[in-house]
Sequence to fold (307 residues):
Amino acid sequence: MVGAGYVGATCAQLAAQKELAEEIVLIDIVEGRPQGIALDMNQMSAIEGAAARVIGTNDPADTFDSDVVIITAGLPRKPGMSRSDLLEVNGRVILKVADYVRRGSPESVVIVVTNPLDSMVTLARHALGFPARRVIGMAGVLDSARFSWFLAEETKASVKEVDAMVLGAHGDSMVPLLDRCTVNGVQAKDLVSKERLEALAERTKKGGGEIVALLKTGSAWYAPAAASVAMAASVLRHERRMLPTACFLNGEYGLEGVYMGVPAILGRGGVERIVELPLSLEARAGLQRTAGSILDDVRQLQNLGLM
Fold:
């Protein structure tokens, strides 16, 4: 886990409790922080009975030969900021991390969490030079989880019974698939009015901003960490789960040369297959719009000399 902030530290905690690996490395540039967090987590293991060992470090060499790298490092959003406002500062962080991941863990699968997600995973793949299937972004799992929770609250059903899918960019232009939402197999549109369903979709699009506004000093960390670890588990354990993932599209959904959230089968080598769903004309138009917003950020990265 790169970055010992709230997201990175929670990723390490969840990975340790789930025993995803014998060794979990937490790296940060702040001296003492990852070491202290790791010591605390290892002592927690004496209570939880988890066999995984967390290593806290400031030395990139300690991350070498990793099977999976989760990049959470970077500045979080503050109230009034968009994800795109973080482009330059977090882009430079991604380049520094990519340098030692490329040298030390050349066979790893890299999961990018840093915002703005879709442009940061594009930059990471450019800097790493890895096959696109091994450089992916965490977005859709989180956005779909938010939509699922809102639907569960609305229908008074257990969130375990709710299945929702959100595609596109990790931002205000994301595309919640209203006709794919179900509660124990029952279409959400049969349980919730069209107006309420659309309102829940809009709340999902602004779900991260809602948390930022409430916290005032940072952004979400529990759900993003859980989403990242779910993806890592599917890779490390070869679970082959179908999860909405920021993948590099090469003609899928009629889009070329852009990273975007789409359903994908994740296994040991990263993306095993991108799943193309039949979409409504409205959803396809939404994906075209969201692709435009992502490419705008990528062009900005190019103008800044980062790509």
Notes: The chain has nine helices and 13 strands. The radius of gyration is 19 Å. The chain has a mean pLDDT of 93.
